[in-house]
Amino acid sequence: MPERYDNLFLSDTVSRVNYTNPQQNGPRFKTPNRDAGQHGANIRRQLDVAWQRYQDEVSNRQAVAVPTREGMYLEFESAPGFDLKIKSLEDLRAGVRLLNVRTITLGEHTVQRATIFVPYDKRAHFLNKTVAYMESGKNKSLLASIEEVRQAVLESFWQGDAAWMPTAEVPVWCEIWLSSDKPEVLVAFQEVSAAMGIQLKDESIYFPERTVILAHVYRNHLLELVQRSPYIAEFRRAPETARFFVEQSNRGQREWVDDLLARLQVLTDSQVSVCVLDTGVNNGHTLLEPLMEDDDRHAFKPEWGTHDDAGHGTEMAGIAAYGDLQEAVTANTPIQITHKLESVKILPPVGDNNPELYGAITSQGISKAEIQRPEYQRILCMAVTTDAYSVNDGRPDSWSGAIDEIASGYLDDKQRLFFVSAGNVRDREDYLNYPASNISCRVESPGQAWNAVTVGAYTAKDTITEPDLQNTQQVAPRGGLSPFSTTSCVWEQNKWPIKPEILLEGGNLIRDKLGCFTCDDLSVLTTYYRPAERLFTCFGQTSAATAQAAWMAAQLQAAYPSAWPETVRGLMIHSADWTFQMRQQFLPANPSKGEYHRLLRTCGYGVPDLAKARWCAQNSVNLIIQGSLQPYDRDERGRYVTKDMHIHQLPWPREVLLALGAQTVRMRVTLSYFIEPSPGEVGWKDRYRYASCALRFDVNNVNEDMDNFNRRLNAAARDESEFDNDSGSDRWLIGKNTRHRGSVHSDIWEGTAAELATSNLIGIYPAIGWWRERHGLGRWNKEIRYSLIVSLSTEAETVDLYTPIVNMIRTRVPIEITR
After folding, report:
1. Are 670 and 762 in contact (CB under 8 A)?
2. How far is CA 683 from each of CA 232, 688, 695, 777, rounded to the nearest angstrom?
3. Could you read off the pLDDT of 452-470 as tens digits, one per residue?
4. How does strand 510-512 pair with strand 473-474?
5. DSSP string covering 455-483, please?
6. How do residues 417-434 score in pLDDT, each as one tens digit?
7. Would you call 207 helix, strand, or coil by DSSP?
8. Does residue 240 contact residue 465 with C-beta atoms inside 8 Å?
9. Looking at domain 36-152, which of 3.30.750, 3.40.470, 3.30.70, 3.30.420 is its CATH number?
10. pLDDT of residue 242 exceeding 70
11. Of 72, 152, 312, 620, which cross-links 156 as Cys (Cβ 3.0–4.6 Å)?
């Protein structure tokens, strides 16, 4: 696994910088003390043995006319307690490919194992490195890190518990990971599989340098695939569906739960909490009890009780607690929980609340939790929506306005992170028109709230194990938009925010000649609200996705206690990307910015990646600035005018980028802030804008110095139009006029390293809001907080961007320019 580092929080003083400082020349790679001649000779003997075995196998297979791959799979193992020099094992120019890396526990120590493919005509590749090591000490870090090298076996490719491998008697669905994303490689693999009589799923998933396809295989199938195909990277057991757990007896479910509880590690002094606003939570469930005190359950009306009458709140809580509960249950490793749970019952046991009261109920319910635990860093999670008496066209209403107000801290200067669901496609007939029905079905109230993160759903579930359903079809493709997810495609697009912002797992549907139906196989596993009857149940739709988003935010908040709600929100959106299938579904070839706009209103920014949000790597660095500015002021003539602009000069690895030249690099910028709402039905333009203040970001152009950039930002800030002139937007994937909607803005610049070498100035400037235009309300001199997140990355893992940035932080601090 590549080295991981904390995100870098930049501030005005060097003493407040929060980062892991590597050595001047990067982290020192540790290897055992070796005698080069003796150790090299040992590795050489092992390589000779491996190649001889391979040649014997080829001869035997050729003798009976059995197809055989051209090249050998090798497995390298590190010395106990040490790592392999992974990046030196691969040489793509020579066709030597790194396939997988695993960490294995052997007694008191761990070893690292890496599987490599070496083409037959490059069989001397590692032998030559070994000889150079023996003769001159060259390649020391690579060779000294190796304890053993041998021909790879089936277990070299298997990811997960060996007990999950298929047997010779019973076939199972497995994920086959191929070491290329080229379509012709998949075609070749399909031909090999067809010749072997292996059943494959029609659809596959493409990742950079990886293709994943599902195959129904016996153990012998896997052994033979390794012999025939030169592109095997990994085998994995296809995850069991939620039905596997739900259909077990309560005793069987109890065994799974007891196993998880034995591995559970709860951080008892955590100050981070996910507060579920729903039907209540029954914390008598043994998986929820360690995370939720009785005093942390509340109800809008005491007579309702705090227990869960309907099940929805407890189902939300199971995912908010564990994320992917199915993964936690089936893992064989410790599960650490770094947050707590709270519950506010906002729905009555019988009947419904009046829609116009939801805003007040939400606000007062949150107050109950905050009074009980004022010290908590609270993530608010609500998957209750309505389409009754709501136009659902993006316009604010009292409920969404209340949520914006709660998040902004308007009343108490306490900002809050809020996740709401986008609402679901409700009519069964609409499912037959997937995905057109998703385009026409609108995000429901209060999903239009500017400050909340509105969560839609995608699905990675397409495996059906129930025999009676084998003749059905999945409605959505794996990796595609979930059939349940609503969108903002039909909103007035030049006015309202991008909704939903992110998508997470919401399950899938099956379809047959009678219509579309839910299916346990295509659902999410969670906790059942009546644990005496059973412990697990199936769940889905945008509710499940919203609960998972809250869980993810809790991981980030616990990792970075000083991060503002605006920052955690920004990191999640910043880390999101569209799946290959989403691009296939909703983007044509050579898409325009308008077509990206439509993709955004359908899928948001895509699926967030917790690892990308949480960590930096040597070749991928996240820089975070938390700041505030005063957007407006009153001049000497009594006019209300724009006041502050900030320009941040980032620590930039200019020399490294220039040295990379034409190599592709990627910069992503996300600006997150909370507006104060003005939700009255007044047109939301001119002086009655909905947002108190709008902020914008821009980056200096290639070779544009500070003075010229400052003048350009001044001109942009003086522009009274709703959106900026989109000049220069060709540099960006999304462009200004799309990214500047709402109160979180994210865009991607991709080009050559040399072009980006001088683009290290990022300006933050205000646009018009009601704070300035409605000065009689007395908010014209208020400051607004913002979080700026900038990532710089390259696909080349050997490039070190992290170390030079860290070394520059001590002398490079943000520069503020005030107009």
Report:
1. no
2. 59, 7, 20, 18
3. 999 999 999 988 888 778 7
4. antiparallel
5. EEEE--------GGGTT-EESSPTTSB-T
6. 999 999 999 888 899 999
7. strand
8. yes
9. 3.30.70
10. no
11. 152
